[in-house]
């Protein structure tokens, strides 16, 4: 032992011996202190500048008073232990904060864009007043309706020489059709020959259609003349040899108080006396057919024209887009494709049920266009669009949601909407009782697309189209 008691001069390690100022510690000035000298507490001087420098250095240690000796001492700061968990927690807190900032920014941006958009949508006009429609579940594409690629075996004829050959008729081996530019043409020996024009040019845009004319349904009469339904002009008789055109019925003449805005298809009796034809709408024209379908307007009619008396009668009304028509072989009823409702109606024109109507086929796997006779005694039906099952059918989905239709046509033009119509092509053969006999498909519309009519002649099917720039020819022996 040294023999010194605590607190004696020279005891540098004791509490009253003082400690040399080190890093992070308070500095006390010691004057006159030396080895062997007693500590004179009165000689200690507090230096506030030194303390300030300690606080400025960021040392958060606590300064405490040693009550026993009256000296200020620093209590050492408890060391901070950094672990992976603490780092993860800090990162999580930072990430959460960033996420909240992003969410708030996104919400504010969405609100700032949505409010003016909603305002604009509210102010925008909608060209249609869609009606709610109700459909049954479409039939499954199974059995006779099972998907195949038989239509892809067809060959294209007169490619890029015809635009929209909607309907087809034949006299012998010569085919006749109408085109989107208002012409009636014959297809003979590999050539396209114009024999008549129903309207006046130019015929380049949809705005030109009313003046240019748009031939749709075409038939051959008993005298070898052509009967043509023009969507804008009415019904014509055309001499295929001379090209002479006779205007039988003008669409400008109101029928029972309603104008004819969309004359579509026609069928004629064997003696040529009666012509049955459809007026698809008194509101919409052919160029607005998509608006007609999406609105679900029920202002279509089936009419009868007497070529002798020139009288016109309304046989059926309240139809939703009546389209193709076909007399039965016995001429006792007329079939009418009601496109919007995916069904075919039957109206009796003779016999015990004359004047009555019933359903021939309903809930079809697509939306029917023209109807033409088949060699088996039944009927060929071209389907303009398919109702997929299994799968998604846009028309079925939108049928009971008029508010969605309204929104779509406020924001998009009909031309834009038409681009979303599936190219799936389907042709059905029906028996004389309406039962499905067979189906021909082109699931992707690779060869035959937008089919409007099926015309059978000499073991071949000729496929018309309301849009494609060609005809298709399909050999029945290959099916």
From TrEMBL:
Membrane topology: Single-pass membrane protein
Localisation: Membrane
Region (Disordered): 1-40, 67-94
Domain Strictosidine synthase conserved region: residue ranges: 264-351
Annotated keywords: Glycoprotein, Membrane, Transmembrane, Transmembrane helix
Recorded GO MF terms: arylesterase activity
InterPro entries for this protein: 6-blade_b-propeller_TolB-like (IPR011042), Strictosidine_synth_cons-reg (IPR018119)
Ranges of Polar residues composition bias in the record: 83-94
Record has Signal as a keyword: no
Main location class: membrane
GO cellular component: cell surface; endomembrane system; membrane
Coiled-coil parts of chain: none
Family: Belongs to the strictosidine synthase family.
Function, as annotated: Exhibits strong arylesterase activity with beta-naphthyl acetate and phenyl acetate. May play a role in adipocyte differentiation.
Full protein name: Adipocyte plasma membrane-associated protein
């Amino acid at each position: 032992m040294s023999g010194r008691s605590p607190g004696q001069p020279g005891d540098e390690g004791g509490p009253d011996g003082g400690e040399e100022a080190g890093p992070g510690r308070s500095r006390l000035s010691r004057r006159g202190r030396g080895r062997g000298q007693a500590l004179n507490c009165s000689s200690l001087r507090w230096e506030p500048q030194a303390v300030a420098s300690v606080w400025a250095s960021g040392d958060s240690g606590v300064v405490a008073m040693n009550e026993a000796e009256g000296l200020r001492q620093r209590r050492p700061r408890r060391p901070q232990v950094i672990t992976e968990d603490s780092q993860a927690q800090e990162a999580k807190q930072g990430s959460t904060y960033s996420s909240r900032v992003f969410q708030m920014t996104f919400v504010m941006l969405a609100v700032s864009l949505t409010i003016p958009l909603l305002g604009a949508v509210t102010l925008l006009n909608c060209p249609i007043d869609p009606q709610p429609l109700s459909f049954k579940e479409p039939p499954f594409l199974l059995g006779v309706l099972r998907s195949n690629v038989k239509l892809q075996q067809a060959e294209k004829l007169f490619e890029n020489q015809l635009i929209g050959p909607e309907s087809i008729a034949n006299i012998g081996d010569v085919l006749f059709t109408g085109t989107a530019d208002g012409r009636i043409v014959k297809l003979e020996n590999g050539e396209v020959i114009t024999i008549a024009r129903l309207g006046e040019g130019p015929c380049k845009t949809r705005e030109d259609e009313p003046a240019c004319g748009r031939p749709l349904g075409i038939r051959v009469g008993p005298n070898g003349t052509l009967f043509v339904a023009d969507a804008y002009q009415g019904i014509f008789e055309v001499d295929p040899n001379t090209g002479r055109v006779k205007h039988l019925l003008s669409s400008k003449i109101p029928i029972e108080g309603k104008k004819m805005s969309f004359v579509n298809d026609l069928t004629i009796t064997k003696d040529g006396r009666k012509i049955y034809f459809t007026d698809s709408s008194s509101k919409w024209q052919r160029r607005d057919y998509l608006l007609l379908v999406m609105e679900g307007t029920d202002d279509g009619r089936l009419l009868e024209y007497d070529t002798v008396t020139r009288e016109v009668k309304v046989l059926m009304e309240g139809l939703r887009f009546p389209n193709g028509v076909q007399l039965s072989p016995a001429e006792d009823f007329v079939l009418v494709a009601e496109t919007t409702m995916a069904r075919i109606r039957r109206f009796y024109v003779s016999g015990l049920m004359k004047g009555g109507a019933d359903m021939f086929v309903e809930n079809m796997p697509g939306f029917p266009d023209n109807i033409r006779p088949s060699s088996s005694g039944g009927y060929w039906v071209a389907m303009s669009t398919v109702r997929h099952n299994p799968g998604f059918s846009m028309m079925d989905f939108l049928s009971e949601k008029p508010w969605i239709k309204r929104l779509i046509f406020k924001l998009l033009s009909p031309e834009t909407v038409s681009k979303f119509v599936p190219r799936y092509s389907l042709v059905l053969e029906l028996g004389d009782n309406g039962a499905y006999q067979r189906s021909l498909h082109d699931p992707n519309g690779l060869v035959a697309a937008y089919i409007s009519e099926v015309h059978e002649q000499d073991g071949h099917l000729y496929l018309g189209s309301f849009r494609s720039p060609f005809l298709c020819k399909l050999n029945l022996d290959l099916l």
